[in-house]
Amino acid sequence: MKRTFIQFQSLLQHSLMVEKANPERWLSPLLFAITVLLLFAFAFGQVEPQFIPQLLTAATYLTVFFSLQIAFSRILEPDTQDRVFEQLRSYPLSPIAWFLSKYVLVFLLGTSILLPTLIFANLFLNEGGPSLLSVPIFVIAWVALFGLCALGVLLSTMMLRSQAKQILYPLLYFPLTAPVLIAAVEGSRAHMVSGASLQNLMSNWLGLLVISGIIYFTLSLLLFGELIKPE
C-alpha cells in the first residue's frame, strides 16, 4: 500500500509539472467555454424570466460538457511523446497508482474549467434569475465531474493507440456521458426552479449522479489495468 501511494505521488507530481509547463492544455478548453457562453448570450437575447433557469442550466452544462471532452481527450498526449507510455508499461507500476494519478489530474483540470464556466455563465446568461453560484449547484456539478473524469481517463487510454481517436473518442464519450449530463441538468433545474434541497435531490437526480459516478469510477479502475498491460 505504501509503495502504491509513493508511485501515485510521483506520477501525479510529474503530471502536474507537465501541465504547468503547457498552460495551453487547460487554457484552450476554458477559452472555448467562454466563447460558447458568449454565443449563447447573444443567441438567447431577451428571455422570459420563467424560462431563465432552464436555459441557464442547459447552456451551462452543455458548454462544460463539450469543453471537458476537449480536455479529457488530450490528457494522455504527453505520454505519447518519446514513447513514455510504452516505457511506463514496462515498469512494475501499480495500475491503481497510475489510474489515480491520472484521475486526480483530470479532476483538477476539470475543476479549473468547471468553476470559471459557472461564474461566467452566471455573469453572461443570468438576467435576474436564481444564481448558479450556490452550494447545491456546486455539489451537483462536482458529483457529475466525479463520474466524467473516470470515463475521460478510461476513454483516453482506450484511444491512445488508435489512428482515428479524434473521431472515435466523441462517438463513445457523448452517449456514455448523456445520463450524467441529463441528471446534472435536471437536478440543477429542480434546485433553481423548485428550491429542492440536496437532501431531496439525493432521492432522485443527485442520487442517480452518485450511482453513475461510482459505476464509472469502478469500471474505469478495473479496466485501466487491462488496457496498460504490456503486449
What is the oligomeric state here? single chain
Overall pLDDT metric: 83
Name the shape in a single word.
globular
Share of residues in strands:
under 5%
Structural class: mainly alpha
List the helices and strands in order: HHHHHHHHHH
Number of helices: 10
Q: What Rg, in angstroms, do the CA atoms define?
A: 19 Å
The beta-strand count equals: 0
Query: Which consecutive residue ranges, at least 5 long each, have pLDDT under 50?
Result: none
Query: Helix fraction?
Result: over 70%
Count of the separate structural domains: 1
Report the major sheet.
none
Distance between the termini: 26 Å
Structure explained in plain terms:
This protein is about 80% helix and about 0% strand. The chain contains 10 helices and no strands. It is globular and about 60 Å long.
Compile the SSE list and pairings:
Layout: H1 2-21, H2 24-44, H3 52-73, H4 77-80, H5 84-90, H6 95-124, H7 135-158, H8 165-194, H9 198-201, H10 205-227
Helix pairs in contact: 1-6, 2-3, 2-6, 3-6, 3-8, 6-7, 6-10, 7-8, 7-10, 8-10
Question: Brief overview, please?
Answer:
80% of the residues lie in helices and 0% in strands.
List keywords for this structure.
10 helices; 231 residues; mainly alpha
